[in-house]
């Protein structure tokens, strides 16, 4: 599906995404500019299969702090278990 912006540009980009909250894993196809995925705290997320023209825009509730992010899946699982 193509979307035409105000300048006549066509938006056809897409990427896949997964979200895991410790109980369920969900998979998404981001193929329309109005789609978004909420990512609550202590949620593991990955993005993949970017089309060559894809751009992923992230809106966040706080300024980025690298130390706030867990980049190791095993550590994430341990933190998730400790939080429940």
Characterization of this structure:
The structure is a single chain. With 84 residues, the protein is an alpha+beta fold. It has one domain (3-83): Jelly Rolls, CATH 2.60.120. It has one helix at residues 73-83, and strands spanning 3-4, 10-11, 15-20, 25-30, 44-48. The protein starts with a strand and ends with a helix.
Strand order of the largest sheet: 4-3-5
Q: What is the count of DSSP helices, taking H or I runs of 4+ residues?
A: 1
How far is the first residue's CA from the last residue's CA? 41 Å
- Form type: elongated
Count of all domains: 1
Considering the chains and any ligands shown, give keywords for the structure.
84 residues, alpha+beta, Jelly Rolls, 3-stranded antiparallel β-sheet, two-stranded antiparallel ribbon, 1 helix, 13% helix, 25% strand, elongated
In short:
The protein has one helix and five strands. The protein has 84 residues and is α+β, with helices and mostly antiparallel strands. A three-stranded antiparallel β-sheet has the order 4-3-5, with no helix packed on it. A two-stranded antiparallel sheet has the order 1-2.
List strands and helices in order, with pairings.
Elements (H helix, E strand, L loop, with lengths): L2 E2 L5 E2 L3 E6 L4 E6 L13 E5 L24 H11 L1
């Amino acid at each position: 599906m193509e979307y035409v912006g105000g300048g006549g540009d066509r938006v056809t980009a897409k990427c896949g995404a997964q979200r895991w909250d410790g109980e369920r894993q969900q998979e998404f196809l981001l193929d329309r500019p109005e789609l978004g995925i909420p990512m609550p705290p202590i949620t593991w997320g990955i993005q993949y299969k970017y089309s060559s023209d894809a751009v992923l825009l992230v809106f966040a509730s706080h300024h980025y702090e690298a130390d706030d992010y867990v980049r190791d899946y095993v550590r994430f699982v341990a933190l998730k278990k400790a939080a429940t």
